Amino acid sequence: MAAIGVHFGYTCACVAIFKDGRADVIANDAGDRVTPSVVAYRDTEQFVGIAAKQGRVRNATNTVVKVKQLLGRTAGDPETKAHIAESKCPVVCKGEKLYYDISAGEHNKLVTPDAVAKLVLEKMRETAQSALASDVTDAVITVPFEFTQAQKTALREAAEAAGFNVLRLIHEPSAALLAYNIGQEFPSGKSHVLVYKLGGTSLSVTALQVNGGMFRVLDTLTDHSVGGDSFTDALAQHLAAEFKRSYKQDVSCNTRAMMKLMNGADLAKHSLSSLNSANCFVDSLHDGIDFDCNISRARFEVLCSSLFNKSIQPIKALLETVGLSSGDINKVVLCGGSARIPRLQQLIREMFPDVEQLCSTPPDEVIALGAALQAGLLAGKEGPSPDDESVGVDACATDILVKELDESGAEVFNVLLPAGTPLPARRQHTLLGRGQLSSLCLELYQRVTQQPQKLARIVLRDLEPKEDNHDINTVLTMKRDGSLHVSCVDESSGRSEAITIAVAS
């Protein structure tokens, strides 16, 4: 039975299929194996992918990029505010819901981030089905490790609206390990693998432990201040300076001209991953002037030297956090389009001189391949038997906390399930309440940023007043699929309440 694996990234998306016992990445109708996660609106039409990206210069206010940043987020989220400040397409908030304000056509219309994501995922489905020549919809979708429950749910719903039957959501580092069949080589004994992902808008580094064919996440670090776009921007700024030097005209404050330079710089950056030099040509950059500039790989590396250093620092911080040295790492897996950059690969190789660096599969395709292999395993019997296949042991992505009052009456948050806890996990906690109270409220939170976000609320009512404190026995159980079950029992009366928060794995 065939199945589909999808990696829906912040800037690009990639789809792979599992068929006849193997996984392959599928090229889109433009012949590209990776599709920009860009959607453009014009009158009554929508364009997805490279056509939308290339037309953004003339249609910026109706072109949505990096929509994944808004999926499942609230208006007050810092990442939401950063996206709104950067987006050329206006974002508005109505009734606590976020919308893109699209002005194409006769009337303005409001489009949700979920609807935009649906169009990108529909493109992935159509691309896969064209290769399979069938209506296969079974799919595994990948998510970043730090995705919250709300973000996972939003992505799953968008995928289902796009026509997918979502078999499972799996974390991107797990998919990268599956793509390289890691877990089979170490039937016994522990080993450690570092997954380094440099995508378009962020950098994430994850340490995993492989033990007897099983692997679990030790910890992960994500930096949203550096990504492939940072390198493109640095190169575009250099090109703007070269244009000013040659033609005595400053285009750095001209939005349209800089978008043209960003497109040219992006193409040049990709070329420099395989060539020693690249030519950047921009037609009619400013005042009808065509701009042509040659960039060497050495010059690019000098321009981005500070970014390279910034891209390496999280590795050292992560190893220190998990208590490992570079000598404890057995393999390094590279993924994300910008992990193709030769200088970056060299710096990582210097950090791990005796460690195998896995980058034979194109880094921007490896996650989709891993997802397809997992989809093949779940959808049918063509893949390896479950007894032989490595299994990813997921971990709690965020801290799960309970809000309580201390002795002074001040609100405090106590961590019940720390981020990185291997799943399934079970925690027991006793909630104390004054005896004269007839009801008690338990509030659970998850810590995504500094400010915890409310996750669930359970109220125990009709408690009998007593002289001593109420002792509420609370049990939290988080399953492998990420769902959280919470039960509360008043030990004196036996009165109980329970709630299940269903989330994607």
From TrEMBL:
InterPro entries: ATPase_NBD, HSP70_peptide-bd_sf, Hsp_70_fam, HSPA14_NBD
Keyword ATP-binding: yes
This protein's record includes keyword ATP-binding: yes
PANTHER family named among the record's database cross-references: HEAT SHOCK PROTEIN 70KDA
Alphabetical list of Pfam families matching this protein: HSP70
Family classification: Belongs to the heat shock protein 70 family.
SUPFAM superfamilies: Actin-like ATPase domain, Heat shock protein 70kD (HSP70), peptide-binding domain
GO cellular component terms attached to this protein's record: cytosol
Stored CDD domains: ASKHA_NBD_HSP70_HSPA14
UniProt-recorded name of the protein: Heat shock 70 kDa protein 14
One Gene Ontology MF term: ATP-dependent protein folding chaperone
UniProt keyword list: ATP-binding, Chaperone, Cytoplasm, Nucleotide-binding
Organism: Muraenolepis orangiensis (Patagonian moray cod)
Annotated localization: Cytoplasm, Cytosol
